[in-house]
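Batch manifest, entry 17 of 40.
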Amino acid sequence: MNRQLAIVKALNALYYCSNAVLLPYLPLYFAFKGYTAVEVGLLLMVGPFVAIVAQPVWGYVSDRFQTVKWVLLLLWSLQLLCSIGLFTATGFPITLLFTTLLYFFLMPSSPLLDSLTIRSAFDAGVSYGTVRMWGSIGFSIFAALSGAMLVAIGGVDNLQWIYWGVWLFPLMLAALLKDVKASAPPITLRSLSTVVRSRPLLWFLLLVFVMMLPHRMNDGFLGLHMSDLGASEQMVGMAWAIAALSEVPTFALLHRYLHKVHELALIGVVGLLYVVRWIVYALATDPLLLLVMQASHSITYAVFWVSAVAYVVRIVPNEFRSTGQSILSAMFVGVTGLASGTLGGWIEGWGGYESAYMIGAVVAGIAGVAFLLTHAAQRGSLRRGGQGTS
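Output type: structure tokens
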């Protein structure tokens, strides 16, 4: 089990290293290839759009055949092949095709890796966060170093060599994994409908969409906002690294206290903290302030994600864990990402970054209050149920 846990930690670190290559530099790569701003925007919207369909589908496949390891190996191998097509493509239609295929195989691997992490951590008697934090460590280190690496190999035009080099290691490590299986029998489409129609889950996902909409807007705005305020490319890269590194203590320590506070209540408080964060982002006139504020990622996003994963694990039956995590990820990455790209671009064009962040603060506050009210309603229902049976 110690060997299994070490492999899962390494897989988290290496997988998020690959994200540290794509997130900051893929838009620059497309621009270097001569695509227009509209074409680059379309290419970047492919990921969230594909995630809406791909993540639940592959989560169901994993639960249906009771394997995470082999689905991960298949997805990672196919996305690596698609990346070869992407980085050698000439012309927008072919680039769009291979970008779509890459994201179709890459995006579903994140919730599956989360599912593998949850199960391996449980079997080893440790918390999910203490394993998942290695993903944040990998992302932050690579985000800080990747800029210098690109300079060393000749610029963003050679991005593929870093990306392919990173992926060799998780593919080899995944082959050494011990697969994790649910104790329940394989699921069917009929039994899956019980999860899809779960009112608590659907309401939770709706509130997640509302609260994380400004967060996903910030993912797209941050670099541009900082650049407008005079930040260098190195400062923008450091901002991503600080955010990822700040997640580590939260992932490592939150599990010690999570049992004392209901997940919905904690996420509600996070919503109110997001209000403060987005107001500061709206009023900032110095990029250094935004750089420092990226550390607030630890008490907003990291707390939200650990709590959201724990809540979904608790309300979804064990045999649907991969499906549940995939649906949560599809909402956060796919639906919310797609909506934030559309609405965020419209709001920024109408009133600038300050208006976008101020509206984001209002939206986060509404969602935070809704989470707190939902928690209060659930507690009241449980108390009435308890009195009725006493």
